[in-house]
Design goal:
Order of helices and strands: HHHHHH
Number of helices: 6
Number of strands: 0
Distance between the termini: 125 Å
Helix content: over 70%
Structural class: mainly alpha
């Protein structure tokens, strides 16, 4: 190959590379325009989406209200709320029964405490000087003797009799007022 042939070939190759570079530059310019258009389209899409969301705000609020009202209605139904709530009434009855059983379970302790009270009162009264005076002076002497006294008296409670007395009292109130407070 001659130097002239080599030079012609070199110039042809360079011109081919220059054409490809120009094509690449033109393509990059088209991509840049496309990116700019896409950016603008994205901004317009975002603005349109935001405007659509704002336009649907009242529908969203209405739907939220419907859901909240349905939830409240379901709660009223589940709790059987009909002024007063049947569930709350049942819970109150169970609480009252538990409280009564707790009181009965503690009766031994109450009896011991009451016994201590009676012994202390008996000791204080025995130790107090008893004047031979008029009724008013006797009362004043007893008040002085008992002034700082704490009295503990034993109480024996028969649970069955207590229950019968409670039922009798409830029935008497029902007969007197016409209102049924408990079902027994």
């Amino acid at each position: 190959m001659t130097l002239e042939t080599l030079e012609i070939r070199f110039q042809a190759e360079i011109q081919g590379a220059v054409v490809q570079l120009r094509t690449l530059i033109a393509e990059m310019q088209r991509v840049n325009v496309a990116v700019s258009s896409m950016r603008q389209a994205g901004a317009q899409l975002s603005a349109g989406l935001a405007a659509g969301i704002r336009a649907g705000k009242s529908q969203v609020l209405r739907a939220a209200s419907e859901v909240a009202n349905a939830a409240a209605s379901r709660i009223r139904s589940a709790l059987q709320i009909r002024s007063p709530s049947r569930v709350a009434r049942d819970l109150g009855a169970q609480f009252s029964e538990g409280f009564a059983l707790g009181v009965l379970d503690g009766q031994a302790r109450a009896a011991m405490t009451a016994g201590s009270l009676a012994q202390a009162a008996s000791g204080a009264i025995s130790a107090a000087p008893m004047p031979q005076a008029q009724d008013g002076e006797l009362i004043a002497a007893v008040e002085r003797a008992l002034g700082n006294l704490t009295v503990v008296a034993p109480i024996q409670v028969d649970g069955v009799r207590l229950g019968e007395a409670a039922i009798s009292g409830i029935n008497a109130v029902r007969r007197a007022t016409g209102r049924q407070m408990l079902e027994i």
